[in-house]
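Example 3.
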Amino acid sequence: MAEKGRIVTGVLAPHPPHLVYASNPPQNEPRSSRAGAWNGLLQGYEALRARLSRRDFDVIVVHTPHWKTRVGHHFLGIPRCQGLSVDPVFPNLFRFQFDLAVDVPLAEAICAEAASAGLVTKMMRNPDFRLDYGTITSNYLCRPAFDLPVVAISSSRVYFDYSNEAGDREMIALGDATQRAIERLGRRALCLATCSLSHRHFTEEPADPEDPAFEHIYNQNQQRWDDHILSLMRSGETRRIVDEMPDFIEGCVSETKDGSLTWLLAALGFPQHPGVVHGYGSVIGTGNAVVEWDLA
Amino acid sequence: MSGTVLRGYLVPNKPHPLLAPERNPGWARLRAAMEETGKEIRASGADLILLFSTRWPSIIGHQIQADPAPEWWAVDEDFHDLGTLHYRLRMDAEFAEAWCAAAQARGLTARTVAYRGFPVDVGTIAALRLLDPDNSIPACVVSCNAYSDRAETVVLGKAARDAVARLERHAVAVGVTALSDRMFTEWMDPAQDRIHSLKDDEWNRKILELLASGRLEDVAQLAREFTRQANGDSKLKAIWWLAAVMGQHNRYAGSVRAYEALWGTGAAVVGLVPSEARVGDLEYDEDDLETFRGERGVLAQ
């Protein structure tokens, strides 16, 4: 029998393709100017990677807002995903060659646990499926070697089709199911909630998308909400974050409406120790934070 | 002969009629109606199919596909078990550039996209595969901006008219959209598909009744109320756009070729042909902008 697994680390790991673009990896076709608009976040990811390198993981589990499903929660169920990913929103920035292995047994186990908890679920078995860029970018930013298998979980539209409260209830159940499956299969997991905090975009782009003069949080309302949520993270008040989540979502158009952060905090068992905020900054007006909860 | 918009259509934005018509008689009827509509388009003398797809969201203004031959594959995010949509499309790149320029001249943020591997959306692919399976007529598709409202969308439609006139195209305009957009959120036997609620069904039938009377602009004016009542797909931006492209009036011969449920949502195939018959010259509450001067960053620092 496998040793009881656990979530070693959980990370709020935002996925703007801008951060991959700015890094100029060989897999990405566009080249950036390195003008520096997102340096704070890139440095945050660098600090995160340094800490993650000291831990052993078997798998990366990602809950991604860019695989949007309205009929329940879906799980990537093909053993390998590779090809060219072009962002339909920012194709000028992200055209990335990727190759990822998938931990299908763990995906199936989470799917089964979620179904037994009453959630609507589906395994995705179509070999032609185009993996969303949120999964790819967050994997690259946390583990650029792509040397760990992934589990990708879709973002069910519960919050949108029903309510923020209903969405949070499902995400807590999904987080619990994720934790149980990881334990049962004996995995040492890195879990990523790949979403922004405040999520109001500018709808124009400067000639150089990386121009620092252009970049700031959309407005002070968004900034204040982000500051508040970050303060709760720093003080370990993760249950309060979820308590306030419906207001946070409505208050600043937060991408947490896609469920990723609530899922992560539930999977981590609502940690009461401070999260480590490695970086915070804006990307095309949205608020993004790299935050780590180390459970090792 | 100067450019003109010959006809307008509404078609569904889900792949079921293309990939699984045998699983539900309604899905098969939608497919048959789209195929018949495609024959009509090909016989119309059109040299351009213009599309607005609610399945292609954008953030940076309005994106217009300008790759002359996009070729790749797509799989629906929810209904991946229906199979893979392999596509090779034929796009009018010259028109895309002209439309983009016209949109910018009217104050909109717009750009063209032409990248290998760009993920053309499932709605566009399914529509073009059924309306023009041999790519006999070049197409041009624009995204559905997440932040735009009616003003921008109407100006975007007018910009399409500008480009049609400038390049002397004979276009048909197609809104790829659901009507009511409440889906069933559980798995079900496809044969049991139905409109999500009686309320959604009644609202769908009301606007289809108006469209059958040729009252496209009236429906565009009702879009906000429809969206409030029946969870209209993307605020019914596709209808705002279609009404603007078609000239913002009610002088059409309308026909509802099919109305069915697609996983609970309202799906219809509607045709609108310009007609001299006048149905209502009404006063409207909504603005009619020529140029977009709205300040998108009004709330920004």
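Chain B has a mean pLDDT of 95. Chain B has one domain: 4-274.
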